[in-house]
Write a structure and sequence with these properties.
59% of the residues lie in helices and 0% in strands. It is elongated. It has a domain of 80 residues. Helix 5 crosses helix 7, helix 6 runs parallel beside helix 8 and helix 12 runs parallel beside helix 14. With 370 residues, it is mostly helical. It is built from 18 helices and no strands.
């Protein structure tokens, strides 16, 4: 209480009002929150700790980040350039700023600038040939060549050439390569509605486990704000595939509340696919095999069809095992075999529905009298 009284004396009323407005705001826009807090980004952010800040939809023109810790800063549709934002002495490793600043620093070198002009003047076919020869492991000056390839990627508007350059940059990267990670953050920001590039980017990040799960999750999470539902679906699929139970449960609030049914289904489909073949089976309409709408529950007549389908699949697998015709792993037998043989399939299904609910799906109740 004494501390509160002391703060009440020290902090001006206007400041307390601004703090209250920030705490009450439901907006996640960094720029909007600065306005509510009456902070001038041209002078009030210097030497701030802004690690992991989400800058989505913020126009950073004129911002002064001198001495700021911006490591891990991310977002999409962030408007900025090295010419319009002051990043003097800022820490920008692993942020959406790092890639463009590295290119700017490279092009400040007269030798690299001259090489860039020469290669940039080639036809797109010759640029690809140059990348094939010079952007691969083991060649001399690989770090310089990768920077050159990155500048070519940034300067071209040809989507095919972008894809090819990205392919060779990826292949030449070492495990945990920060340059490729920073480039992926830049692509996520600047091309958040380009399905082709974002799909490649998520694939590259997914295969680069050396970056760490938390960093990958943060990088892709920004894409949940994309205006293209196909890209949002890619982000949901990735985040469910790598997330912990707690992270997936948190994501479920976002995915399952979406009006667009495909976004709900991609969450459900990815989750049950991760849990196993048996879960994928019980999450689908037993008649048409489509993913079941989460709001419908499981009517008694559908449950009976589901049980029949499970028993039939089990018997088919067992027959295949006996006569040697089963080519795949007996997944249904592994999941449901003991329950079928022990005559507790209903209890088994109830346990599985309970486990799905632990990840954020609505709890499906077994109909009474089944």
């Amino acid at each position: 209480m004494k501390d509160n009284l002391l703060l009440d004396t020290i902090i001006a009323d206007a400041t307390k009002t601004a703090i209250g407005q920030v705490l009450e705001s439901t907006s996640e826009s960094f720029g909007y929150l600065l306005t509510v807090a009456h902070l001038d980004p041209k002078k009030h952010l210097r030497h701030s700790d802004l690690r992991e800040v989400d800058l989505t939809d913020t126009d950073l023109t004129g911002y002064d980040f001198t001495g700021c810790d911006l490591r891990g800063a991310r977002g999409i549709r962030v408007k900025w350039s090295p010419e319009t934002v002051n990043l003097t002495d800022a820490l920008i490793e692993g942020s959406l700023f790092a890639h463009q600043m590295a290119i700017t620093a490279a092009l400040a070198n007269p030798e690299i600038r001259q090489l860039h002009r020469r290669i940039n003047g080639l036809s797109w076919q010759d640029q690809i040939v140059w990348a094939i020869r010079n952007v691969r492991r083991g060649v001399p000056d690989l770090d310089r060549n990768r920077l050159l390839a990155a500048t070519l990627f940034e300067r071209t508007t040809d989507s095919f050439l972008k894809g090819e350059l990205l392919k060779y940059l990826e292949k030449s990267a070492s495990e945990g390569d920060e340059q490729i990670y920073n480039m992926m953050l830049d692509i996520i920001n600047g091309h958040s509605n380009d399905l082709h590039l974002i799909s490649k980017t998520i694939k590259i990040l997914n295969e680069s486990q050396a970056f760490g799960r938390a960093r990958l999750k943060s990088a892709v999470e920004a894409l949940l704000s994309s205006n293209d539902n196909r890209i949002v679906a890619l982000a949901i699929r990735f985040l469910v595939s790598v997330g912990t139970k707690e992270e997936i449960r948190e994501l479920s609030d976002f995915a399952l509340s979406k009006r667009a049914a495909p976004l709900r289904y991609v969450f459900i489909g990815t989750l049950v696919g991760r849990l196993g073949a048996g879960y994928d089976m019980i999450a689908r309409n037993p008649t048409n095999k489509d993913l079941r709408d989460i709001n419908r529950g499981l009517p008694a007549e559908e449950l009976l069809v589901l049980i029949r389908n499970i028993r039939r699949a089990y018997m088919n697998e067992q027959a295949g095992i006996r006569d040697g015709t089963l080519r795949d792993e007996p997944r249904i037998s592994k999941e449901f075999g003991a329950a079928i043989e022990g005559n507790f399939l209903i209890e088994k299904l109830d346990q599985m529905f309970a486990r799905m609910a632990e990840f954020g799906l609505p709890r499906i109740k077994i109909p009474q009298g089944t």
